[in-house]
Amino acid sequence: ATASAATTPPPADAPAAAVTPARPPSVRATPRARRLAQAHGLDLAAIQQQAGVDLITESVLQPFLPKEQP
How many independent structural domains does the chain possess? Predict the structure, then answer.
């Protein structure tokens, strides 16, 4: 029983953990823009594509942020 335990393949979920999910190309954004996007659940890659910019700044994010209620 000990020999068969040593030759048992790893669990099926082990290789899946080693595989990294497909990621979009890296997005260039300022640290403040990244924090704002994360706080509001925004997708920087989608914003970069829609805005057509190379670097996402706070001013680029402004139109995508939720409007504050009065």
Answer: 1
Range(s) of the domain holding residue 40:
25-70
Confirm if 44 and 29 have CB atoms less than 8 A apart. Answer: yes
**Residue 28, SS3 per DSSP:** strand
The pLDDT of 13-36, averaged and rounded, is 72
Higher per-residue confidence, 11 vs 38: 38
Q: Helix count (H) and strand count (E) of the chain?
A: 5, 2
Q: How confident is the model at residue 32 (pLDDT cuts 50, 70, 90)?
A: very high
Report the C-alpha gap between 63 and 47 in whole angstroms.
Answer: 10
